[in-house]
Design goal:
By secondary structure, the protein is an alpha+beta fold. The chain contains three helices and eight strands, in the order H-E-E-E-E-E-E-E-H-E-H. The termini are far apart.
């Protein structure tokens, strides 16, 4: 079982939550830890996870999940609501990079993802989720490539919007085909009308000639 699958099973499923995305991270800067809090836990892996409740009304959370060395289980360490998220900093708007910052009402963390691709995917999902679920105020996304926010970047459209773009394209093509078909039908009806008018005129002329010869 992968780490993310285990997180879903151990952390979110028991609370009837669905995990929308997760990214493995490490701190860019060392956090100052009080002397009494050090020791005993050793090394650990950290994941930043985005989840939503299955029950309505939906509640979205950003959760810090850790797995400590020597343990097979994952534990929830910190959690914020999406309303507490103030800013997402993508660090570099011109290239894929693994660094990003998250600013909350009461916390600020500087992270490095396990890969630039994993960070980009997480930011895309986070932005999409904020646009969908944030009601009172949406967090600010700064220094992010436009492709991560649904626009066109150096390497194309965002993953989340590519499907929508495909659907839109298909609808446009179908609409164009219907319009062209309608135009063809319209031209055919017009030609049929012209032929009927010509036939009527021919019949009228023939009738007049016949009446003239009779007289």
């Amino acid at each position: 079982m992968s780490a993310k699958s285990a997180i879903i099973k151990e952390v979110f499923a028991p609370h009837d939550e669905k995990m929308l995305g997760a990214v493995q991270v490490k701190r860019r800067t060392k956090k100052k830890i009080p002397f009494l809090a050090t020791g005993g836990q050793g090394d650990y892996m950290t994941f930043i996870c985005l989840s939503v409740t299955n029950k309505k009304p939906s509640h979205v959370s950003i959760t810090k999940v850790k797995q400590f060395e020597g343990s097979s289980s994952f534990v929830k360490r910190s959690q914020w609501t999406i309303e507490q998220l103030r800013q997402v900093n993508g660090i570099d708007p011109n290239r894929d990079c693994p660094e990003f910052d998250l600013m909350f009402d009461n916390a600020f963390d500087q992270w490095v993802a396990s890969s630039a691709g994993e960070k980009c995917t997480f930011v895309q999902i986070l932005h999409h989720t904020c646009q969908r679920y944030s009601v009172e105020r949406k967090p600010e996304f700064v220094n992010c490539q436009s492709k991560l926010l649904g626009g066109k970047g150096l390497k194309g459209n965002s993953i989340l919007h590519s499907a929508a773009d495909s659907v839109t394209s298909a609808v446009q093509k179908a609409s164009q085909a219907l319009n062209e078909r309608g135009e063809r039908l319209g031209r055919a009806e017009e030609k049929t009308g012209d032929m009927m008018n010509s036939a009527q005129q021919f019949a009228d002329t023939a009738h007049k000639l016949a009446m003239k010869h009779k007289s």
